[in-house]
């Protein structure tokens, strides 16, 4: 499943017809893994690559890896990785302040004391890009990546995006 999703991300975002309005970003993610009875706050780094498919809509692929774990009830919780494909609607793509909403699909893997498990689920979020130059922006976002089988992975992230 992960290989198919990775191939779809590459194929969808690397088409030569969409490379003209592309972007790359790196974000620090303050994640929250909620088990219902307890939660943990591990961190991750997320990279994204996207291409505009029209004036306001972009398609983007994301890959995240855990940076640090968090301990709850004596158990170390870590985000091992997340891979996803998302549609993004940008309200002001040419403005200095561009709020957006995203919807897509994420395959994620978390571990608890070295035992890992993975899930895939529908994802959604909202955020904003704040221009700091002609081709760069500060990015702020909140997203729910997975909410399945009693486990929710969500997060607030901040980072930089470069347009090319």
Automatic annotation (TrEMBL):
What this protein is called in its record is Porin family protein
Sorted alphabetically, which keywords does the UniProt record give? Signal
Q: What stretches pass through the bilayer?
A: none
Check the UniProt entry and state the signal peptide residues, or none: 1-20
Q: Which domain of life is it from?
A: Bacteria
In Pfam terms, one family for this protein is: OMP_b-brl
Domain Outer membrane protein beta-barrel positions = 7-164
Give the matching SUPFAM superfamilies: OMPA-like (SSF56925)
């Amino acid at each position: 499943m992960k290989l198919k999703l990775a191939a779809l991300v590459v194929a969808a975002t690397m088409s030569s017809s969409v490379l003209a309005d592309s972007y790359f970003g790196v974000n620090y993610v303050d994640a929250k893994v909620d088990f219902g009875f307890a939660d943990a706050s591990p961190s991750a780094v997320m990279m994204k690559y996207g291409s505009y498919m029209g004036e306001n809509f972009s398609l983007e692929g994301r890959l995240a890896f855990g940076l640090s774990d968090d301990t709850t009830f004596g158990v170390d919780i870590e985000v091992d990785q997340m891979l996803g494909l998302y549609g993004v609607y940008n309200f002001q793509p040419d403005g200095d302040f561009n709020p957006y909403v995203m919807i897509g699909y994420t395959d994620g893997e978390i571990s608890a004391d070295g035992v890992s498990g993975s899930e895939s689920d529908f994802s959604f979020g909202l955020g904003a890009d704040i221009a700091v130059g002609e081709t760069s922006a500060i990015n702020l976002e909140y997203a729910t990546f997975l909410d399945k089988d009693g486990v929710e992975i969500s997060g607030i992230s901040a980072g930089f995006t470069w347009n090319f």
